[in-house]
């Protein structure tokens, strides 16, 4: 029987102990006992699927989380990481070397930009940036010999939607691997691997946990790559997830589909309620017909952005007047969160770069939680009236 994503999220990858527990066991151990010296030697040479060496290499609880997320994503393998940025760093660093060329979309989360702009060039990797929605720029930049392309399937925070299948076709024609950050689309709404992505990364800190408890991330793709260069790089550089965090993420997966669909429905209701409000310069939500890439992501996701007319002072006044929405910098949480990217997540960017990316002084990223959407709309409209 072929299970749906929603069923895989509850049952995929389960390993039960001899006690037959219903809730997956937390194996809070960093090491493992071998029955003999010969067994230890054999395991270091070639460990089997359920043979473990050290928690930095793998753990039964971590393996359950990895296998379950891989089943939902439709990937052959997954390596769980300490955070979403550990996943981005591992996916890029494990597959490039001095002299390689990487082409990336320009609209990215600030820490992703730091890896591409600051870290990779230190090691002799050429990085070229393009407008991710312009396929002609991808065609011009992805020349033969390009090692990898990288983009967020839905960009943070201006919510541009990249045509994953079209970019993958361009990249593969040049022999380049396609690495995507799929956090905003989530595995609920996206089939990035089916669309041509070779590697998919997630910050499990976001929707997978969904309740703001733990850091975590994941790198997914073909078994030979994930359990080859990715695993080798991650286990030796120490970016593996802790067993406890993996257990929290594993339990989060059980309700992922229900939470994300409810949050997306609320996000759509909020976007529709705010669109056309004279106090806003724009409302950005992929689920709106007015969004330029609506056809690529009609489900819309759980996040929208608004651009408050009146600049930073008016925007701060609106944010300070919110009662339900929390001012923070996470997303995908059960609690609704308002973020001012220009002064927080993207504050290190030069003003000219912010302007080019559309990160204005009035831009607010709204991550929609599980509260009643009518209450969230009322809170936003009341706060806008207090500017």
Description:
The protein is of the alpha/beta class. The protein has 14 helices and 12 strands. The strands form 2 sheets. Strands 1-7-6-5-4-2-3 form a 7-stranded mixed β-sheet, sandwiched between helices. Strands 8-9-12-11-10 form a 5-stranded mixed β-sheet. Strand 5, helix 8 (186-189) and strand 6 form a beta-alpha-beta unit. It starts with a helix and ends with a helix. The model has no long low-confidence stretch (mean pLDDT 95).
List keywords for this structure.
387 residues; five-stranded mixed beta sheet; single chain; alpha/beta; 14 helices; Aspartate Aminotransferase, domain 1; 15% strand
* CATH architecture name of the largest domain: 3-Layer(aba) Sandwich
**Poorly predicted spans:** none
Strand-and-helix sequence, N→C? HHHEHEHEHEHEHEEHHHEEHEEHEH
Walk across the major sheet and give the strand order. 1-7-6-5-4-2-3
| CATH topology description of the largest domain | Aspartate Aminotransferase, domain 2
Give the overall shape.
globular
Mean pLDDT: 95
Largest sheet: 7 strands, mixed
Structural class by secondary-structure content: alpha/beta
Beta-strand percentage range: 5-15%
